[in-house]
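Model the whole thing, not chain by chain.
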Amino acid sequence: MRKLTLWLPLALFAFFAGLAAYMLTQEKDQFVESTMIGQPLPAFALDPAFDGLPGASKADFSGKPKLLNIWASWCLPCIAEAPQLEVLKQQGVEIIGIAIRDKPADVANFLNRYGNPYTRIGSDKISEVQLAIGSSGVPETFVIDSKGVIRHQHIGDIRPEDVPVLLRELEEAQ
Amino acid sequence: MIRWVFAALLALLAVPLAAQDSMPPAPYAYNQLEDPALEAKASALMHTLRCLKCQSQSIADSDAPMAGDMRHQVRARILAGESPDQIRRWLIARYGDYVSYEPEVSSTTWPLFAIPVLVILIVAGVLLRRLGKRRSDGGEAEAKA
């Protein structure tokens, strides 16, 4: 019994060393999820991000479930998700964009090059609305139901395999 | 020859890729509040809020554009009369406990606060028993001598 307790500190040390070694091999989850899921959108009204489309406000999220896409013309993954947003648009999904820290000319240029899946784009020059809905980067996509309640958050660019997931979330938000 | 000189020149010029926006920072991102008392309040709070883009830094330490926008929120809200605690709650409601560097007792963090107290109690118990025993042993030894 005495001998066993002598080994206890070493065993504890080995346990923690093993734990540290194991955690080092695990991929770190860098995403900060919004804790606003299930909460209504905060009130906001943003000016148009460029001349071609109207701006965006909370009142635009009514009638049917819609996607709220947080993006920016200076964001590379936003280029990668452009084709998927186009597919969603063709499926009849209404996508309202919020451009973060962006300039009208850059927004227009981006849409010319990579297509325009949006019906409205608000300009969020100081990430105000982004912070108010708990988004921590670009791109992020939120499913908003017909009552203006945030139902789902997708962090990062939308890959082809994410399209059915978003369509299902939109269906469930009906 | 000229090509090599050109290549060498290019290699000497470090031109970083612009992966960020070119917008001017938010009004209160890099400007302090005029009232020193309010600025002190804002600054103390900013040192205990996590930058969401650069997660090992506080928003007071970070130059990320998003940290600047968060500093603007903090200063603008302090100026509007909100208390630091209200602003912290506002952010925690959006990003969870993770955004705050000030630990809180909650359903997941209570062991962090309870375990040290428990360990101290156990150690105190063991010490008392051992010391008490030794003293009584010593007492007996002296009595015998």
